[in-house]
Amino acid sequence: MIKDALGEAESRMAGAVRTLEQDLAAVRTGRASPALAERVMVDYYGTPTPLIQLATISAPEARLLTIRPFDPGSVKDIERAILASDLGVTPSNDGKLIRLSIPPLTEERRHDLVKVVRARVEDARVAVRNVRRDVHNDLREFEQEKVISKDDLHRGEELLQKVTDGYVEQLNELGQRKENEVLEI
Fold first, then answer.
1. What's the predicted TM-score (pTM) here?
2. Would you say the C-alpha torsion 119, 16, 40, 107 has a positive or negative sign?
3. What are the CA-CA distances from residue 141 to residues 13, 114, 128, 130, 161 (Å)?
4. Could you give all domains of the chain from N- to C-terminal order, each with its CATH number?
5. Which residues are CB-neighbours of 38 under 8 A, at least 6 positions away?
6. Mean pLDDT within 134-155
């Protein structure tokens, strides 16, 4: 019972770490990265669709992203979505290819992005703590229903805390790496 509960906690906490990695990949640094634009939602024939499903995104240079739509008719929709997104860049197109020139970050913008990174890391920490709370409540229920003993409950709580601490440390390391990347000139 305890192993099952801890296994569930680990898988849910690992999901929080994966989600944070994806969120942080979309935070802009000084370099162009295809991950910046992958999750931009494009209104494609009335359906919100991620840009990655509509086009090939590449970074041929350090400060340039190119987007080659699979359907040349969607160029205007993609441009509109990029302008409406929080990327802060203006697209230029030649009818077949959209170019996004990534301007260098100002010091003020870097500090704003660090705040965004810290907020996302904190959201992930909250998610991990929520998983811990849910599993802890499950363990208490097991003990109240006499499925496990008080000693087993205590051991389970200690193991759960160790697992939680490990995942919180992973989240902190991810956040610190991204902060350093954003502040790097």
1. 0.71
2. positive
3. 21, 41, 20, 17, 17
4. 2-25+106-183 (1.10.132.20), 35-101 (3.30.1360.40)
5. 26, 50, 51, 52, 57
6. 90
Cβ neighbors of 122 (< 8 A, separation 6 or more) are none
Alpha carbon distance, N-terminus to C-terminus of the chain: 51
Tens digit of each residue's pLDDT (9 = 90 or more) over 84-140: 887 778 888 888 899 988 877 788 888 888 898 999 999 999 999 999 999 999 999
Work out the mean pLDDT of the chain and round it to a whole number.
Answer: 88
Token pair listed for 42 = 């494009």
Residue type, 122: E
Mean pLDDT of 144-157: 90
Which amino acid does the sequence have at 26? A
Distance (Å, whole) CA 90 – CA 168: 37
What residue type is 86 in one-letter code?
D
Q: Residue 127 has which token pair?
A: 């998610």
pLDDT at 2: 82
DSSP letters spanning 95-134? SS-EEEE-PPPPHHHHHHHHHHHHHHHHHHHHHHHHHHHH
- Token look-up 């009818």 returns 95
Helical ranges in 26-88 per DSSP H = 35-38, 75-84
Q: What is the largest CA-CA distance in the chain?
A: 70
**How confident is the model over 3-7, as a mean pLDDT?**
89
